[in-house]
Amino acid sequence: MGKDAIPKNWPPTVPYLSQPSFAPHITKTQLQALRVCSPDLTASIPANFPRGPCPLVRIILIGDPSHPARGQAGLFAARHLEPGTLIVPYYGIIHSSLPPHSLDHEKSDYDLWLNREVNIAVDAEKAGNEARFVNDYRGVRERPNAEFKLCWDARSGQQCTVAVAVFVLPSGKNAPTKAGAGGIAKGAEILVSYGKGFWSKRKEENEASVER
């Protein structure tokens, strides 16, 4: 992969993925589960959605002293994004969430569920794409303007057909970015809610660290 196939400001120590990477311990049963389209998957990645660096986003270092992620990177809109728009798939290492394999991922802040029934998750800590830079909205704006959604990947040749992707929140769920408009404005940071589970786990880890 050439340098032109890696986004600007991508960290040199993290491999860039244009498709998911599967841990060697993933079983045939788990792979088959990811190829079953559930009626609950109302969103999809179209067959013609391109791989590689996403033209809709930019990775930018955050310098705002009031931002909770100051000194780290965030994901920003390269153009105005309409409500409901698919922004970018979430790529990482697809792995089992059962011990002993889960031990390599239990402290990761980049680990998302793919299928709880067969214990499969995707972790973008050690390899991923632009979606790994999406920050939580808390301390930045009143509410999120995007969301993580399980979806169906319709692209041919894609071994994993169930995926996670980042979407702009639909109309009515996001405060307008300008008079009469929704979506995400050009230059605005793309922000999701990590959920109560993430912050509860973070609180437990901090308390455990203090006790030591």
Automatic annotation (TrEMBL):
InterPro entries: SET_dom, SET_dom_sf. It holds the Pfam family SET. Residues 55-195 form the SET domain. This is SET domain-containing protein. It comes from Xylaria bambusicola.
